[in-house]
Structures are given as C-alpha cells and as structure tokens.
Design a protein that fits this description.
Blueprint: E1 5-9, E2 15-20, E3 25-29, H1 43-46, E4 51-55, H2 73-85, E5 91-96, H3 98-109, E6 114-120, H4 139-151, H5 156-167, H6 174-185, H7 189-199, E7 215-220, H8 228-237, E8 242-246, H9 253-256, H10 258-270
Parallel strand pairs: 3-4, 3-5, 5-6, 6-7, 7-8
Antiparallel strand pairs: 1-2, 2-4
Helix pairs in contact: 2-3, 4-7, 5-6
C-alpha cells in the first residue's frame, strides 16, 4: 500500500503519523522546522518494503501541543509509545537534523528497540576536542536565529520561504523549497520555541562509540549547517558506520535529492 493513511497514537500528547506499507517498522523523523509532510517523497519508495511511518513530533503538524517546558527526552518517550502502538519490538529509525538527534537519544535510552539508524544532516552535540563535531553555528547563534523573530511576533508563513532558502543548496529544485516552506509555515510557534530551547545544547557525543546497530550517515555535499565533515566525525566514532554524501544537496537531502536519497537508504536497509 503506497497511499499513506493518518494514524493517531493516544497521548498525552496525541501523536499523528502518515503510515503506508507492510513489513518491518521504519519511522521517519522530521527536522526542527518541518513535519511529517517532509517525507512525502520517501513513503512511496519505502512502503513496498516496510511499514513506513512519518510522525509529527509533539507540538508539530497534527500532533498535540503540551503543557510546560520540553525535556528533549520527551521525544524518546513519545517514540516508545509509537513502537508499542504498532506492536514492534524494534524499528528502523531514519531522522533528519533534529530527527537524527531524536533517533540517537532514543537509541541511548532503548538500544534493544532499534534495528538500525539512518542519521541525515545531523550531529550528536558539541565536542571541545574536535571542531568537526557540530553545526556551523554556535548554540547561541542557533537559538537566536531560530526563535528571535517569533519572540518579536513574526508569522511562520512570512518567514517560511526565507528559512527554506537558507538551508538548501543553490541548485535545489523549486518544489523542494515549496515543500519545506509549507511545512515551516505550519509551525506551532510556542511549541517550536520550546523545542529550539530544549534541543540547542543537547549532547549525545559520548554515546557514539556505544552504538552497536547498523548505521547509515547521509549528508548533503553543500549543507550549510551540518557539512559532510560532521558526518566524517560521526563515522570515525560509530563502529561500522557508512557515510553517503549526496551530491549538490544542502541540509534537506531528502527533499532536495529524493532519488539519490531514497536509493541510498534502501540499499542500506535491504542489503
């Protein structure tokens, strides 16, 4: 089945997912400015082989908002509920940017529930011994660039195109920007601000050497935020990890170059 249907996992908060296909569970986790629609070009490719589920993280898309501040580990608690909802002992986790950090955090907490990790345009945290470890912005620069406009009353719809343009490579297709902008325009502003603050300095660098499942690292060749050097850093620390650099792609490889992205992920998962 390649046509996705929406599934809700009871909360609080209630988590919404687009789901298609049969077979082992493959969960797709979006970035900090996205939602489950960011994976619309992946679900048809992956559904013939896997029960493919793209979530809206708490406070995003059709998932519910929540009271109080966010602890980054709350995402892993939600993810555990999702696995249990599907009756899956393990799942393949594919996460882009923040989604990759959620996948790493979930593995650190529940290694027995993870079949493999596909970590895309992401990082584990800052490492004072190696400048390659993290994104090009400092924590403070990242936080201010993401939330200051919204603290000053900006509308996500007004900023969506600018944000998408800043993150993608110069030769991205027009529809990639349109898809990214549509997702950003739908942000829940209060939840987004809480997410940026909770995720900004979250660190799982020390756990990289303990990852014992197959790992694919996917990075865009011209990613302005997490360049391929971050992937090299992670590959050196995760035993057996494979690194694929997608030519001419920026930070949103799955949207900018869906063909090569899908091929790389399927080659990893099926072989």
């Amino acid at each position: 089945m390649n046509t996705a249907e929406i599934v809700f996992v009871a909360g609080p908060p209630c988590i919404a997912l687009n789901v298609a296909g049969d077979g082992p569970l493959l969960l797709l986790l979006h970035g900090i400015g996205g939602n489950k629609s960011n994976w619309d070009l992946q679900i048809p490719a992956f559904a013939p082989h896997f029960t493919t589920a793209a979530w809206d993280a708490r406070g995003y898309g059709e998932s519910e908002d929540y009271e109080g501040d966010l602890d980054f580990g709350d995402f892993s608690a939600d993810l555990l509920r999702v696995l249990d909802h599907f009756g899956a002992e393990t799942a393949h986790l594919c996460g882009l940017s923040m989604g990759g950090r959620i996948a790493q955090d979930f593995y650190a907490r529940h290694p027995d529930r993870v079949a493999s990790l596909v970590l895309c345009d992401t990082f584990a945290g800052d490492d004072p011994t190696d400048r390659r470890a993290s994104r090009t912005q400092t924590v403070e620069e990242f936080v201010q660039s993401r939330i200051r406009p919204y603290l000053d009353g900006a509308d996500p719809k007004e900023r969506a195109g600018q944000v998408a343009d800043r993150l993608m490579g110069p030769n991205r297709p027009d529809d990639a920007c349109e898809r990214a902008a549509a997702a950003h325009a739908a942000l829940h502003v209060e939840s987004y601000i809480k997410t940026v603050r909770a995720s900004a300095s979250y660190n799982r660098v020390d756990n990289l050497r303990h990852i014992a499942v197959p790992v694919l690292l996917v990075f865009g060749e011209v990613d302005p935020l997490t360049p391929p050097s971050v992937g090299e850093y992670m590959r050196e620390r995760i035993s057996g990890a494979r690194l694929v650099v997608i030519e001419d792609a920026g930070h949103m490889t799955s949207l900018e170059r869906p063909g090569p992205f899908n091929a790389a992920v399927l080659d990893f998962l099926l072989n």
